[in-house]
Specification:
The protein is mainly α. β1, α2 and β2 form a beta-alpha-beta unit. α1 packs parallel to α5, α5 packs across α7 and α6 runs parallel beside α8. About 6% of the residues have low confidence.
């Protein structure tokens, strides 16, 4: 496995648990992003793709300056393949770390063991009713229920996106070996929604 990008590898592990789709937004040199996408696709074919945050690829990078105009960025983000990429279950930015020294990566076998164990677990997941309104039951603790309600009120998410987020939260709960989705699982799932302004 790639001996860098621990936060991205965490997202990939979650994706493997729930067979989720992933889009990696590669800043600067996309080498790490393509390597990580290739690693995931080897285990779960065609579930990971790589896109750039803008035409030059440097938007949001702390190591290079974006040379794209606002119009160029908007036009790029409106391209059908980019719009499609942002429908993935998990969206995560991959900063350019190719120039940093390698750190010892976790063995693939250990990741596979955790994923296999998590897949065997059952988690009670939240539902969204046919009218796309949240059906908040007693499945979560009060903190998780409050967080879910607040997210639905404040974030621009469709019913489909809410279901995706809850499915991702369920995979996170499985990795944590708990039977229900809690606030911490929801909070981590929120991190993986698309936000071009922060990319």
């Amino acid at each position: 496995m790639i001996p860098r990008q621990e936060h991205v590898k965490r997202a990939i592990e979650i994706a493997l648990v729930g067979s989720h789709t992933v889009t990696l937004i590669a800043q600067g040199d996309p080498g790490d992003a393509f390597a990580l996408a290739g690693w995931l696709n080897a285990y779960q074919p065609d579930t990971a793709r790589v896109v750039r945050p803008c035409p030059c690829g440097n938007r949001g990078s702390d190591r290079a300056v974006c040379s794209c105009s606002a119009d160029a960025r908007l036009a790029y983000q409106a391209q059908p393949e980019i719009v499609q990429a942002l429908l993935a279950d998990l969206i995560i930015t991959v900063p350019n770390m190719m120039a940093f020294p390698d750190t010892r990566g976790e063995p693939d076998e250990r990741v596979q063991e955790r994923v296999a164990a998590a897949r065997r677990r059952t988690v009670v997941e939240e539902r969204v009713d046919p009218d796309q309104r949240p059906f908040v039951s007693t499945l979560h603790d009060s903190a998780a229920t409050s967080l879910l309600k607040a997210a639905i009120r404040q974030l621009p998410m469709s019913g489909t996106r809410i279901r995706q987020m809850l499915a991702v939260a369920g995979s996170i709960a499985k990795l944590a070996d708990v039977p229900q989705i809690g606030a911490a699982h929801l909070a981590e799932a929120f991190v993986y929604r698309p936000r071009w302004d922060e990319a």
